[in-house]
Every structure is written in C-alpha cells, then in structure tokens.
Structure prediction request, 607 residues.
Amino acid sequence: MKEFSGPALFLDRNDINTDEIIPAKYLTEITKKALAPYILEDLKLEGFDPKSQAMAQAGVIVTRANFGCGSSREHAVWVLEVNNINMVIAEGFARIFRQNMFNCGMLALEMSGRDIDALFALGKEVTLFADINAGRLTVTGRTAEGGTREQSFSFELDAFDRDLLLAGGWLEYADKNY
Amino acid sequence: MGKTITEKIFETHLRDTPSPGNVVLGIDVVMCHEITTPIAITDLMERGMDRVFDPARIKAVIDHVTPSKDSKTATQAKILRDWAARHNIKDFFDIGANGVCHALFPEKGFIRPGYTVIMGDSHTCTHGAFGAFAAGIGTTDLEVGILKGVCAFKLPETMRINIIGALPAGVYAKDVILHIIKTLTVNGATNKVIEFTGPVVDNMSMESRMTLCNMAIEAGGTCGVCLPDRVTAEYLWPFIKDEYPTIDAAADAFTRWHSDPDARYAASLTVDVSKLAPQITFGYKPDQVKDVTEMVGTRIDQVYIGSCTNGRIEDLREAAGILKNRRLASGVRGILSPATPAVYAQAMTEGIINIFMNAGFCVTNPTCGACLGMSNGVLAAGEACASTTNRNFNGRMGKGGMVHLMSPATAAATAVAGHIADPRPYMNG
Ligand code: SF4
Prediction:
C-alpha cells in the first residue's frame, strides 16, 4: 500500500480541471514518468508557480470543491503519482478523477467545507498524514517559537474504496475477484 | 417502488456488490481510442495480461490525432492498430474509415437501449442518448474493462430535467444544454445521471439528443440519458431489423427501459425553452454562459465547427443554412471537421461542403482535431475561437487561447460577421 503523507500544497480554488493538472498536449506520452515536469502547468491560480519549491516538495494537495473535473484522463492522477503526491484532500471531486485515484491505490479524501477551511487556516508549512485504518488525518506544523504543534481530523472511508487502497488498485482487486 | 432507466440497467447488469452502495456491472461495449488506450495496452503487456474479454464487444478508433502528426502520435496509433489486429478486434477504424468516436460508434449501430458502455473518454455520456448507461472512465477502469468486461460504479442518483415549451428559431439542443449547465453549474450533477425528458426531447432527433447528453459531463454528470422511443428505433432500424418485425414493435420493446412513473429522483427540474436565446460561454468554465446578445461584437480569430458535440450532419446543415452565399469575414479563419466519413459524404452529396469551401472554410478529414488542441487548428496565445465543441477550459485549444462554446448556427453567423454574432438575423437567407 502507498503512504498517504507529506508536506501540503494548498490550492485555494474550486473546479480545478484535468486540463490544468496536465494539458492535453502531453497525452501523447506513453510512460507515466515522462509527465512529471508538466504538473499543474496550466493552473489558473494567482501566485501559483508550478516550478516552485512548494510544488517540488509537496506530498499532499489540499484544495476546494470539484477537483479534477473535465476529462477522464488518468494522466491527471499519474502526474501526481510521479511527483510523489499520493493523496488529495478536497471538499469534493469529479467522479472520474476520484475513481481514478482509488483505482491507482491513491487516496482522494473528501472532507467537509468546515474541515477544509480549518486546514487552510493552519498555514502553509504543514505536513499531513492519513491513517486509513483509524480514519484519522494528522496535521503537523511549526509554532512561531520553533516548536511543533499537532492537530487531527477524523474522516470516513467507504469500505470498497479502502479495499482498493489495500489491494494497491482496481486492476489488482479485479484480477483477484473477477 | 418504481425504478429509473438507470436503475433498470444496473439491475440487469449487476455482477457483484463489493460493499453497500458500490456495484460491479457487466459491460456490453468497451470503446477505445488512441489517446487513452495505448497506455492501458502497454501496461497490460508489462503485467503479462495482454488479453481481451471479448473482441466482439470491443470497438476501437484512431480519432484524436489522425493522420498522425508526429512520431509520438504515430506510435500511439500503431500500438492501438497492432493490438486490434493481435486480438482480432473487427470493429477497428483507421484512416479512411475513422471519425470522432462518439459520432462514429452510434452511426455503426453499436449502442442499443439498455446497454452499459464505457470508454476512456469523458464524453462517453453521449451514448446515453440511446437509453444506455454510458460513462467515461480512466485507464485502469479501461484495463479491467478490456480484461474482464466489468466496471465498478457507485450507485448514482438520477436528476430529471424535464424540457418543455417550443424551441424558438435559431435555438438548438446546444443552446438548451449550455443553458442547463449554467443552471446546474459545473458541479451540479456530480455522481448523478441526468435524465432528459419532456416534449422538447421527444421531438428531438437522435443527433440533437446526442448533443444534449454529450455535455452532461460538463455539469459533472456520470451520464446523460434519454428514454428510447420511436426516434431511437428509426435511427437503429438498419441494425435491428432482423430482431423486430416493425419499427413500432422495436419502439414498443424499448419501453421496458423507461423509468417507472413512481421512480425516485434525487432532483427534478423543469426547463421551459420557449423564450431561450442562443447561448454562448464567456470564461474558462462551461457554466459561464450568457445570451449571445450580451456578447455580440466580441473579437474572434477562428471559427471551429466539428467535434462529438456538433459535427454531425444536422449541425453542418444548420451552419450551411447561414453560410450559403456568404463569406468568412476577413481576418477570421474557418475550420470545418465533419465528425465521420458518412457525415462528410452526406455533406458532399447535399452540397454543404461546397458551401463551406465557397465561404472560405478549410475542410479537414474527420477527427477531433482542434477540439482538444492537439492538431488541426491549435490557437496561438491571445487568440479566441468560436467553437461548436464542449469545453472551454484554459488552454484547451492551445495555450493562452480562449474558447467560446456555441451552436453551429451561432458559429456560422460569427464566421460571417467576423465577431460574435446572433444567428437569428442571418436565418432565412
Ligand atoms: S471531439 Fe473533442 S470532446 Fe469529443 S471526443 Fe474528440 S477531443 Fe473529446
């Protein structure tokens, strides 16, 4: 099973679509690795730089509603995977993107608008860790004095979605069961 | 408790319930194109799983970039071509016979009421126009579909949209769906099937119903669906005439898929189109929609008529009605991509291709072409395109380009005017 943790990248916008996550012109690549440099290349978001340090270090994306809308391209999930991002936390996902995440053994975590607001309020430099068995998301950040502070949120995971994560993806699950 | 058409289709295709609310369905048709399938094929090969569950239920086409434009797209085409040959997939469409998947496959009679259909393409929802459950999926779902003929879904709810009134002149299915997406927003139908009902839908051709269902995904919908009726039976007649004694008998049989009167809907909405004006998008999201009258005069560099939304014969006729004896305004480029070879041939027979060429349009072979900015009409930064396609995302038709979505009639009027124009004054000569 993949690890669902890492420094958070906050994308403060609704409706981030798959063309923004990975533009169509890169769909001619036939390996996942080749997609890596183009992550979020066309994202329309004030102050966002796809070549920034924050992007390079990110292990988790935290965003708003309807993330991954638009095309069915699984490339939008792979481009995260090859950039070591195995978890996206959002107020909601487009259906196909969400399914593609679990199909790849990656975590698309839906949380309430209130919890998402709380995550955004925690500030930029935080590290997240999701324990899918306990249903707990732990956030670790730095205090002004240089110490660390921790906060946790609970979440619920659908049983089948969890089975997909445990199996490592839908192909592995289906091969065993059908 | 009554059932919706989608619930009936799910019930008849149920293979497994891995957990409450999640179902695994048997799939009738797995459709493939050269953008999302090659990577599935190579992955299956690497895993030693290069098999197909049933070659007769797999349909494949090279449509997004065709003829291939460079070595990479040539390789994608070759992977799909070789795979189709290796597995004896008879319904494979290559250069000379290929066209935009969601226009071509219906034309070939591959979709029937009550079917389950998947494809690695979000606009697979188009096929719901035949009373099928048709959903876009990603590559992993596609791999499992190819290998096992199954796909997992969460049980979707259904949203019913009852379309009433009479469509005014110059207003078409495209305007109706743009208006609906504006109402629902890009997220309004997420995880839902949109069932289109009502007298306006009943009176629509299959082409118009496909335009309607095509854009269900732009409101987040899993699938759009229309109830199969006599119009459906007429369209499918060449393919089903051995199965039913008459068209009416076929239409009658199709009613088994109709939603029951007491079926439960997550939401029901009535849309009266009697006063609807031609619609157009203005931003980077398909729910950013206005009446065309509010946008008249907006600068345009290119007009694109084609795609799985509006590249069918009905669409070409609609545009040609306005382009006849007129010319593209100077400074504006026009591109027509008939969606399939049959559409192209029919348009030639009817003199429509001539009308476009006389107007100064470039006519390409059937392909997705400029729709997703991969070939045949990519925009330069700062350029704007009046387009009959379905997506206006940032960068969709080329980095830095702007796309305005509209009907073929509005696109044709815009081509002639040289800026966004209302089609209504251009009608009747
Ligand atoms: S015409 Fe456009 S929207 Fe339709 S299948 Fe082709 S690329 Fe996709």
Notes: The pocket of iron/sulfur cluster is lined by residues B 64, 100-102, 121, 123, 307-308, 368, 371-372, 389-390 (CB under 6 Å).
